[in-house]
Amino acid sequence: MQSLESLIPVESGRCVYTVKNMNKMSKKPRPRNEIWDSICKSFAMTDLSKTSQTRIGKVTRDLKARGIDPDEIPIRLAILKGKFPTWPLYTPEALEKHWDACKPVIISAVDKTADYLAKQREHESTAKTWAEHKAEAEA
After folding, report:
1. Predicted confidence (pLDDT) per residue in 22-41, tens digit
2. Residue in 69, 119, 76, 118 with CA at minimum distance from that of residue 96
3. Cα 35 from chain centre
4. Fewer CB in a 10 Å sphere around the end CB: N or C, the chain?
5. Beta-ladder partners of 10
6. Whole-angstrom Cα distance, residue 134 to residue 136?
7. What is the pLDDT, as a whole number, of residue 138?
């Protein structure tokens, strides 16, 4: 491995590039992290401190490991707020912790109608007629 001194060009005893400048030159732009962006947008987070960036980074890592879709984050946040309306503060960590509890339930209108009709038919078949109720009352 080469030493750092051999990588830094020197002109007349003076360093042309500092290590700090070399790091800036070698950095490539990062690709957008859609999960990170969705968390920041959903929780209205701007101007993040280093501590906040670390917190969001951990949540992003955990959600990415689950293989989630970034579009799910605002939906599940709304469900979290509906399930726990008395909470004074909603955080990315709370959303990650309760992720499975905030799964949206989808019921199609066709399934609901078919279920309703089946229950209605069952009720009609077991319900007593007016004459049967009257006969029981008189007996």
Report:
1. 555 567 788 889 999 999 99
2. 76
3. 8
4. N
5. 15
6. 5
7. 77
Per-residue tokens: 44: 């209205």
Is-contact 21 13, C-beta < 8 A? Answer: no
Polymer length of the chain: 139
- Side-chain half-sphere CA neighbours of 133 within 13 A: 5
Among 41, 36, 46, 35, smallest CA distance to 68 is for 35
User: Rounded to an integer, what distance in angstroms lies between the CA atom of residue 95 and that of residue 82?
Assistant: 12
Cα separation, 107 vs 19, in Å, equals: 59
Alpha carbon distances (Å) from 117 to 100, 107, 109: 32, 15, 12
Domain ranges of the chain: 32-102, 109-138
Q: Which residues contact 40 (CB under 8 A, 6 or more apart)?
A: 46, 48, 56
